[in-house]
Amino acid sequence: MTEPAYDSEGDMMRPEGYRRWVFVGSALGLRYVQDGEPEDDGPGSFHNIYIQPEAYDAFMADGVFPEKTILAMETYTAGTREPQSELTGGYFEDVLDGFSVAVKDSERFPESWGYVTFGDGDSAAPFPKARCHDCHAKHAAVDNVFTQFYPILRR
Ligand code: HEC
Question: In CA terms, which of 15, 108, 114, 115 is 20 to 30 Å from 134?
């Protein structure tokens, strides 16, 4: 299994090859209302989520995400038009505009799960707990993971 790796500063290295992992689902525009954030209209962005095949097998077998599970999430803007297109409706995944992971690594994170958003570099620092972890802990169906939105992880 591809395991999470970190540099000497404790930043997580961008995982390689995740597009070949198991694709657990795509959500469009999901968001929870947070204080001070305006509600926006429009479809929002696509979120594509992948998990290592070994972690997928383990979860399907016993309902537990094993240590070193990584869920990788790409976000894409929702496109509606192509030049010269005769499309009349619908949205497609247009521009890749974000890449984040959730990683279960109790050796690193006291609350087991860490959350990282990667920019242009090869590594990035995990977010403080309040920024990501707490919403996942509160709303996600199984062990901080939003399995309620991923059809093939609903058991
Ligand atoms: C207000 C709630 C909320 C906060 C805060 C939040 N998330 Fe999430 N996150 C969600 C929801 C809802 C999903 C379900 C899938 C989706 O959005 O498409 C999700 C899914 C994910 C996933 C896919 C795996 C999983 O756990 O289901 C990753 C990776 C992720 N979020 C990273 C982050 C990072 C990084 C941060 C902090 C910068 C963050 N999240 C903060 C609500 C939140």
Answer: 15
Query: What is the Cα–Cα distance from 50 to 72, expressed in whole angstroms?
Result: 5
- CB-based burial label for 109 (10 Å; 0-12, 13-18, 19+): middle
* pLDDT for res 5: 98
**Residues at CB less than 6 angstroms from ligand 1:** 27, 30, 32, 34, 47, 49, 71, 73, 100-102, 115, 117, 127, 131-132, 135-136, 140, 144-146, 149
| pLDDT tens profile 12-28 | 999 999 999 999 999 99
d(CA 85, CA 112): 47
